[in-house]
Request: fold
Amino acid sequence: MTFFTVVIRGLWRRPLRTGFTLAGISIGIAAVVALVGMARGFEKSWQVGLKARGTDIVVSNRQGSLTPKPFDASVRDQIKNLPRIAATCNILVEVTSVEDSDLMILSAREWGGFAWDNLKLISGRMPLSATEEAVVLGQTAADILKKKVGDPIQIETKELKVVGIVRGGALVEDGSVILSLPLFQGILGSPNQVNAIDVRVTPSTSEAQLQELTRQIQQRVPQVRAVTVSEHLSHNEGFRLVKAMSWGTSILALVVGVLGVMNTMLMTVFERTHEICVLLAVGWTRQRIMRMVLYESALLGLFGGIVGVTLGAIGVRLLAETPAIRELLKPDLGLPLLALSVLIAVMVGVVSGLYPAWRSSRLAPSLALQAG
Amino acid sequence: MTPSTASAAPLLQAKALTREFDDGQVKALRGVDFSIGEGEFVAITGPSGCGKSTLLQLLGALDRPSSGDLLYRGESVPDLLDPARYRACEIGFIFQAFHLLPTFTALENVQLPMFESDRSPSERRERAAELLRLVGLENRLAHFPSKLSGGERQRVAIARSLANEPTLLLADEPTGNLDSENAHSVLDLIIRLQQEQGRTMVLVTHDPTIAERAGRTLRMMDGRIVSDQQSAARSAANGS
Reply:
């Protein structure tokens, strides 16, 4: 028999209670995995989408929501001649409802801009001119909207025609309705308004030079923010809100987990007062008693973490298949997130066990002789 | 161990030991003095509430005196920096209610005190099995306490008390929860082991017939030792 056997035996003493506590932690950890995994998946999908378009820097309004606020398209003229800028493309993107779909990315791109280059036609054709009343759909968007080439599509107040289905090389691109910028500006009645400028730099540009370029852009046009693609979402207010909400909900779930484990461990200590006193009487040190209680709660956390990560991963897969978000974003459940979740669960266990462990170590061994 | 060697070097020495509870309203011990030599078998008797068990708790460092001192090999027990080590290595407890842990088998219960020793898990297991053989329970190693009779449980507790080869055995009414037949055989076992292994034993009992089997009897009343006598058997043996 090892010390570990003693720890396991302590948990096994009340299998039902241990099971319920495990379920509590598991649900908390599953929430962490699901919410954070989805948020990270969203971030990653967006970045991959931008990279697929060949964008290195995104210039947008300083006051950003999930889709940044519009600014005047003439900003582009002020930055396009900066060194190491190879190309620029004005963009007006909105996340809005289109017909029966509540959440659709509407991506209007400067006619002839590089953001069209990555689109590969699967069927139909590309719009013939900047003013043709036509859109192309990413293949996922076509699936969600149940559209095929030749179908009409209602965009804001205007009925346009689907002329082509494209593959964009990224989930965000595949989930978008893509049209020419002048056409969309006309529909919105706001000519010259854009809310992002995609910037492509020359191939030899280093990371340091890229950062320097973002500083130069901001110097030249103080009212905009220029960030590299990898930083783009972390500066986005809307996404920061989504991320904060996902972590906030996760922390709430974890606090509930901590209280659950602490309650269980406290009950364990109260129930086992006699047992702990006997162990003290036969020579166990207070440190060993504390270690026993802490190991038990840490083990609860570990098992809860493993079950929670499994549940979370399954839950996220199921969520990702729901019509509202199907293929719009792919959850990012990388090993680091899963490992972090298990680590958090163990920490939950340890933190929850601290007070019960301290209580257990304060017990007087003389109670062992008094108890019948 | 003979009385002469016992008196030569006291293993335990109590000096004006008191223990009060409830801010002095309850005086369990009111100044107790005695010496116990190594290898002695001492019975402490007296009516309920006379302070026997309180004294035993002080001897085993389960509690601290309110005043006075208790020396073990000349060292103050209340001032020990590591009382757990004293309990683990020097003391073996045998309780009236056995106090075996219900979720551990007989073999595992005996191993519990050995976690504070340097023994490896396999050594602990071997030692526990050997001790259970010694108390006649070689066929009950894997039994949980709930599957053992009262006598068998006390035998497991005796084996547990010997786990770390303690110098001093402290037994609190060890036969109090047993029927007379089991009580007799358990007492025989305790005394046989004490004598064979030359351990010092302090046994608390209110039963004069049990006390008679000890070499020396301290009788307590109202928190004081009122008599300290060699048993008739021992006196006769010394006289012959």
Q: What stands out?
A: The interface with chain B takes residues 1-3, 5-6, 9-10, 12-13, 274-275, 278-286, 288, 364-366, 368-372 of chain A (CB under 8 Å). The radius of gyration of chain A is 28 Å. Residues 3-45+239-370 of chain A form one domain.
